[in-house]
Specification:
heterodimer; A: about 90 residues; alpha+beta; 2 helices; 2 strands; about 15% strand; B: about 230 residues; Alpha-Beta Plaits; 2 domains; 4-stranded antiparallel sheet; 8 helices; globular
Chain lengths: ~90, ~230
C-alpha cells in the first residue's frame, strides 16, 4: 500500500485479478454498526461477492459484547470460529 | 472465503426461512502454532493433535499444506476416478506433517467434537486451537469442558453481487472448501450424477473431498447433501 491510512493501493496492481482478497479493519466496539453499514453499502458497488466476518476478544469469563450488537443490527450470527485460548508461549528466547 | 468461516446453510440464505434447520453434522477443530512463539517441536505437537482426533471418529482430517484424508495422486489418470481406492488415509496426514501448517479435524456430531476438545485441553499442547461450528455449540462445548473462550469470529454471511452465486445446494457443498478448490460447476455435476443415480452419494462426496487442499471438506455432510439432493427438483 502507498498510504495505509487512506487505503491507497499501488497503481501497478490495481488491474490485477485475484481469486480472493481479504480486507481487515480494526475498530472500536461502538463503531461496529456504522462500519458494517458502510461495508454493506460499498459492497453493492463491487463486481463481486463479499463474505463478511467480524471478530472480538472475549471477556475474562468468556463473554462477548459483540453478538448482542450484531443481533440488534439484524446480522445472522449462526456460525463462527471460537478460539479456545489454549495457545501459550513455549519458545524461550535468549 | 476464509477457510472454514463462511460455510453456507439456510441461516445465511438471502431470504432466510423463519426456522432454519440447525446444522448438526459439521464441526471443525483446528490448531495452529505461531512462528517463534510456540512453534518449538511443532511437528510432534501437530501429530499429537491429530492422533487425539483419530480416537473420536473424524470424518476428515487435514494438513493445510498437503491435503486431507483423501488426496489426489499423480500416478493415476482421470479414468481412475471411480475405480480407485476410496478409503481415507488418516495416517498419511499424520505422517506427512513436516513443518509450519494448520491442522484440522472434522466431525459429524457434537459429542465426538466435544470429546476431542476435552482430550486436547487435557493434552495441554500449547498451540492455538479453534472450533469452527455453530457458535452456540462451540460455546456449549467450552462450558462442558471447562474452557473459557478467548475470542470469537462471526460469519455475517454474503453481500454484494450475490446474484453471481450458485444455488443453495451448490453453496452448501462448495463452501466446505474454504480455499475455493471445489468449484460450483463440479458440485453441480456431482449433484446431477446423484440425481441420476450414476454414482452413490458416498462415492461422489469422496471424489469431491480430494479437491479440498486442506482437508476441511466434510465428507459425511456432503454425502447427506448429495443424498437429499436426489429428492429435490426432480
Amino acid at each position: 500500500m502507498l498510504d495505509p491510512s487512506r487505503g491507497v493501493i499501488r497503481p501497478e496492481i490495481l488491474d490485477e485479478k485475484v481469486l480472493s482478497a481479504i480486507v481487515e479493519i480494526k475498530t472500536r466496539l461502538e463503531d461496529v454498526p456504522s462500519v458494517l453499514k458502510k461495508i454493506k453499502e460499498l459492497s453493492r458497488e463491487l463486481a463481486t461477492v463479499v463474505s463478511l466476518g467480524v471478530s472480538t476478544r472475549c471477556g475474562n469469563a468468556g463473554e462477548d459484547r459483540l453478538s448482542e450488537i450484531l443481533e440488534r443490527e439484524g446480522y445472522p450470527t449462526y456460525r463462527g470460529k471460537t478460539n479456545l485460548g489454549l495457545g501459550r508461549v513455549t519458545v524461550v528466547h535468549d | 472465503m476464509t477457510n472454514t468461516l463462511h460455510r453456507y446453510s439456510e441461516h445465511y440464505a438471502f431470504e432466510r426461512p423463519p426456522n432454519p434447520q440447525p446444522v448438526q453434522d459439521d464441526f471443525i477443530v483446528f490448531a495452529m502454532a505461531s512462528r517463534g512463539i510456540n512453534d518449538d517441536d511443532l511437528v510432534a505437537r501437530y501429530r499429537a493433535f491429530l492422533r487425539l482426533a483419530l480416537k473420536h471418529n473424524p470424518v476428515n482430517m487435514g494438513d493445510a499444506t498437503k491435503g486431507g484424508m483423501l488426496r489426489p495422486r499423480q500416478d493415476l489418470n482421470p479414468k481412475a476416478h471411480w475405480k480407485r481406492d476410496q478409503r481415507p488415509n488418516p495416517e498419511e496426514v499424520v505422517a506427512g506433517i513436516d513443518g509450519h501448517t494448520t491442522v484440522a479435524a472434522v466431525f459429524d456430531n457434537y459429542q465426538d467434537m466435544k470429546a476431542f476438545v476435552d482430550d486436547v485441553r487435557s493434552a495441554n499442547l500449547g498451540i492455538s486451537v479453534n472450533i469452527s461450528a455453530p457458535i452456540e455449540d462451540a460455546e456449549r462445548c467450552c462450558r462442558e469442558t471447562g474452557i473459557t473462550r478467548h475470542s470469537v469470529e462471526y460469519s455475517l454471511g454474503f453481500s454484494g453481487r450475490v446474484e453471481k452465486l450458485p444455488d443453495s445446494t451448490v453453496l452448501e457443498l462448495t463452501t466446505m472448501c474454504g480455499h475455493g478448490m471445489v468449484s460450483a460447476n463440479f458440485a453441480k455435476k456431482m449433484i446431477d450424477w446423484s440425481k441420476e443415480n450414476r454414482r452413490s452419494p458416498a462415492e461422489l462426496a469422496r471424489t469431491m473431498a480430494r479437491f479440498c487442499s486442506c482437508g476441511v471438506f466434510n465428507i459425511s455432510r456432503a454425502e447427506r447433501i448429495l443424498d437429499e439432493a436426489r429428492m429435490k427438483n426432480r
